[in-house]
Design goal:
The complex is a heterodimer. Chain A is α/β, with parallel strands linked by helices. Chain A has a single domain (2-127), classed as Beta Polymerase, domain 2 (2-Layer Sandwich). Chain A contains 4 helices and 7 strands, in the order H-E-E-H-E-E-E-E-H-E-H. By secondary structure, chain B is α+β, with helices and mostly antiparallel strands. In chain B, helix 6 (109-138) runs antiparallel to helix 13, helix 7 (141-162) runs antiparallel to helix 8 and helix 8 runs antiparallel to helix 13. The radius of gyration of chain B is 23 Å and the shape is globular. The chains are: A alpha/beta, B alpha+beta. Chains A and B meet through strand 3, strand 4 and helix 3 of A and strand 3, helix 3, strand 7, strand 8 and helix 14 of B.
Amino acid sequence: MSEVLVQQIERLAAEHQAKCTQLRKGETTVEIDQTQVKGFVKRLVTETLARHLSTITGLDLGQNIGIIYHFWHEKNTIHVKTTVPKEKPTALSIVDIVPGAILYEMEIHDMFGVEFTGNPWMDRKLLLPDTWPEDLPPPLLKTVKPADIRKRLGLEVERK
Amino acid sequence: MSEEQGKPPRKEESAGLMKYSAENLVPFGPIHPALKEPEYFKLVLEGEKIVEVIPRIGYVHRGLEKAAESRPWVQNMYMFERTCGICSFVHSLTYGQAVEGLTIYEVPRRAKFIRTIVAELERIHSHLLWVGLMGHWAGFETLFMWVWRDREVVLDLVEAISGNRVHKSMNAFCGVRKDMPPGMEDRIVERMKFLADRANYYKQIIDTEETMLERTEGIGRISPDTAEALCAVGPMARYVGLRSDIRLNDPYAAYDEVPFDIVTRSEGDVHALLKLRLDEMIVSANIVSYAVQHLPDGPIRVKIPPIIPAGEHSSHSEAPRGEIFYYVKSSGGRTPERVKSRQPTMANLPTALEILKGQTIADVPVVLTAIDPCFGCMDRMSFLDIESSRQWTWSGEQLRQYGINHYFPGRAKKR
């Protein structure tokens, strides 16, 4: 079962010009261009058994923001990795294919500022407070220091 | 505010007006200091029927992922344990597994068994807590009292093993910090038998007690396909018949050495969820008994250096509420480059929103409890009727009584 799934993913990755590597047993990493993600995920959830999206991880990679979609089926985890440039962080939403992704995309939008086109709730906040200033950068970027945020939000309390 | 004013418009009254004029917006949440985790839901109502639910979480977001980037690997383990006050052990276990995957060291077999024992005790404790809350919100206070008394049995065992009732701090990288105390075996097996008997008794009760039947049967239905598409995890996937359990599908700790089978049900309502969680308690009790009797000898821990090699790894495990997921990335330093943690309530939230659609206000407490969320949202809700600009506020207790009165007029008493 597991070999069949890996072969299927390797074939799909090849069709989408993606690099497929097997780090450890049961862990497949697919590195794919951002424009191809939606098509790949669509075929992944319709043609293979790896239909469960565990979560989406955001990463600060310096120039880029990394997005990893973690899919899971039995003993196999499939990490679909892609990047978006930091200057223009937009990605295509996969909510119409995997409805369960809606909150994960909102989380990355809050924490990394990535705009997911097609997600109906992109105008709302999920985790950040409503009073979060517009000019403050998303908090999980490496350039943001917690002390600066506390200062900016007036949360720094002077101890007597 | 008089009771008449406090009632939302009834379905028949609003039938002619339909969509816009009769649509009420109910802000729902977020703060109650006594409860575990504040969440906020905006309920869009049509008469009494819920048509849409908009979630807003993050009220207790403490920025753990950001904090983890500036703390040593080991410290993070005990910090992530404090994510939750109920399923604390499984957080440190999953984070530990993710980090262990980056090293060359193996977890000793005895440590794996001890991890399994503590994780299953935690599951029993969490499920008991949930069954009690379910009784409370459905208006069956006696069940709450009984179940929470039995929960003390588990907490006493956890305290005897780890020294703490809730934050066990048992895990270390590649092992556990404390060995099982000697001479506990008989006591644990006897207590597990007691709890399994109690679970069987509660199953009888919820099958015959009118309150529970009325409040839970046929409530909270969802199709297996929808649940799968919404990426439901844990009991919320199993109660519609999906065989999704990481203990069985992708074994970690010592689950590949312990004989057990997962429980699934097909009815797909809250009543099935109750029975499912009680059945899971019996399975967990059997796993604990087996693991205690077959505990292997040997070391409980391998010491590893404080610097974790560069790389990335992810791990997941089955918490009482479902799949917990951790992703760690190391650049070869003393602190992580990135840690991602995803809790089961987050994964089950889209499913809960879907289930709530079509239910009435009276069912909100029961349905929201059903997903076993960390449940801070019940108090302080205000109602706004757009049509007449009428606004009224209910506390969580008033909502509970409204729900009980809806089903059993005159039964709810003021406390």
